[in-house]
């Protein structure tokens, strides 16, 4: 069912795990400005506010401590090895390598940390899957250039890429240029370090920044191939098909338009050019982007695979009385789908939607997919005898792995599957530790208090069996 070389594993991101915010010369990243508590979302929405309210002496910033992966990586990777993981996705924190973002020379101590992480993976025969930028614009670049609103960012990002590709040649094969690139339209500060002055055209600036990222990504693919022809470089989407609430053609049209908001990014990355629908739509809004002939040429270098996160499907309705009933979902509010249950944080649980999304993407591109995030954020209870009975998380993954098996049987090519937050990490959206995804529990609370001890959950042993069997033994013949 699953190919023999299928890459089962886990995934985390630097700002949600590493901590050690000032260690070994690291500079500040966007995520380091996001506090815990109610102010966090306001900061995510408004970079000016985040910068001007940064008070590390009096406020808790969860990324500053994370789960202290910086000092625990060996133990954490050993846990993954014990689970049988074949791949480990982590991200580079840009400001560890270039603390302000625009230095000429990299910070050797930062590079040494990732060299150690990669060597540790290799020791256990775990394939490293490296995200180059996971919501991680250095604060220095936000202050100096306004983040990705500036074309200069392309050069600086490529400087980072060159250092990584040269330093880790032969040791890292799988790369992702940007985490969830489509997030820049929904959370522009998070996705691109963008802030807006009153009266500025938010849509125009966000699409311009997206264009610079797309060019940077395409040039990174070319550079990666030039430095090592074995490199495989992927784009990445926060995926999840948007359903029409009903078969009313107005709902169906709205769903198609919403889907284009995500597929615009992968359309460019896979097809190597802008789709006509986006050019028409921007023109209709009076928006002209700075796109040069050299950019168009650069975009012709396409990705080797498309990676995706999948947590939930979405739903839209053209009827205001229906669309008023919203629920949450990874920065995308969505109309509540009456057929689906939700997580404790309101994210809709839809394994069949996973099969649909995988098929949609593969139909569109015929390019291998890599599922690099999937999971359930839930509150876990640690029992007095140090166990976590997370049958709800097992049920979630069980259903999604079945759906993925069905997609493979449908003909979809999938390279691998990494459980999001395989070791509990800080939630990106809420900053909470209590929103846990891991199969390994980390003893820390929302204020960063606790021993930091790692404890295997029931899901750890379950996932270990899944990996050993290369899938679920009990999988029924897919329909
Ligand atoms: C994805 C991000 O959008 O969703 C991750 O790539 C994030 O960084 C994940 O952690 C889950 O979201 P959250 O907000 O529950 O942590």
Which secondary structure elements does this structure contain, and how are they paired or packed?
Layout: E1 7-11, H1 14-17, H2 39-45, H3 47-52, H4 62-65, H5 69-83, E2 87-91, H6 94-97, H7 108-123, E3 127-133, H8 139-145, H9 152-167, E4 174-178, H10 183-186, H11 188-192, H12 202-227, E5 232-239, E6 242-244, H13 249-271, H14 276-284, H15 293-299, E7 305-310, E8 314-316, H16 320-323, E9 326-327, E10 334-335, E11 341-342, E12 348-349, H17 351-365, E13 369-373, H18 391-410, E14 414-420, E15 440-442, E16 454-456, H19 458-468
Parallel strand pairs: 1-2, 1-14, 2-3, 3-4, 4-5, 5-7, 6-8, 7-13, 13-14
Antiparallel strand pairs: 9-10, 11-12, 15-16
Helix pairs in contact: 5-7, 9-12, 12-15, 17-18
Task: Record keyword descriptors for this entry.
single chain; 479 residues; alpha/beta; TIM Barrel; 8-stranded parallel beta barrel; two-stranded parallel ribbon; 19 helices; 16 strands; 42% helix; globular; binds 6-O-phosphono-beta-D-glucopyranose
